[in-house]
Amino acid sequence: MTRRNSWYKRYGADFLMGCMSLTLEEKGAYSCCLDLIYERAGPIPDDPRWLSGVLGCSVRRWKSIREKLLDEGKLSRCGAFLSNPRAEIELAAVTRSAGISAKGGAANGVKRLEKSRKSREKVVENEAEFHKNNDLIEPYARVPDAREERIDLGLSGSSELDRSNVQTHTNIIHISERVKKQSDSEPDVSNLDASSFE
């Protein structure tokens, strides 16, 4: 007898309808026997001393209740054990369902393991590609974007006025660079005459 989960499906209406002929004491004893059967996931020992101790009654009183439950078909004898026909059906259904869930869980575990293995392989592959790119001779040149140029010029925002200011400022920079280049180079003296030096 393996111990299962403490919870089980209980059909209240079925229990009440099936126990109409039982006294309060017999209903309580029957309910406790069902709980024990489900708790143990199978038949319980037909031991009057043990069962009377669990139920909190005398051995003689339990024997009387036991006979009534057996006569009504609420409990059945299975060798040295007591069981309930409906409990056996419900427990068999739970066992089948657990088997199906276990198979599904095992299949899902295999899929997850395969996916994890592929993911690790991809990481190793990407890492190798990353290290291969680290051996480049020249690093890539960084090209500033338009927003950085605007910030360098002391301008912000994107209104039409700001754009025209940036364009004007850029034109001024280009002109001043040309003038500077011309002043840095040798002066053109071919068109100068001697009178200009006086």
Write a structural description.
- With 198 residues, the protein is mainly alpha-helical.
- Among the domains are: 12-89, Winged helix-like DNA-binding domain superfamily/Winged helix DNA-binding domain (Arc Repressor Mutant, subunit A); 146-184, no CATH class.
- Helices cover 64% and strands 4% of the residues.
- It contains 7 helices and 3 strands, in the order ααβααββααα.
- The chain has helices at residues 12-18, 24-40, 48-55, 59-72, 85-133, 146-152, 160-184; strands spanning 44-45, 76-78, 81-83.
- Strands 1-3-2 form a 3-stranded antiparallel β-sheet.
- Helix 2 (24-40) crosses helix 4 and helix 3 packs across helix 4.
- The chain is rod-shaped.
- The model has no long low-confidence stretch (mean pLDDT 75).
Task: Offer a concise description of the structure.
The chain is mostly helical and 198 residues long.
Across the major sheet, the strand order is 1-3-2
Overall pLDDT score: 75
Relative helix content: 55-70%
The rounded distance between the terminal residues' Cα atoms is 126 Å
CATH superfamily of the domain at 12-89: Winged helix-like DNA-binding domain superfamily/Winged helix DNA-binding domain
Tally of strands: 3
Number of helices: 7
CATH topology of the domain at 12-89: Arc Repressor Mutant, subunit A
Comma- or semicolon-separated keywords:
3 strands; 198 residues; 7 helices; Arc Repressor Mutant, subunit A; mainly alpha; 3-stranded antiparallel beta sheet
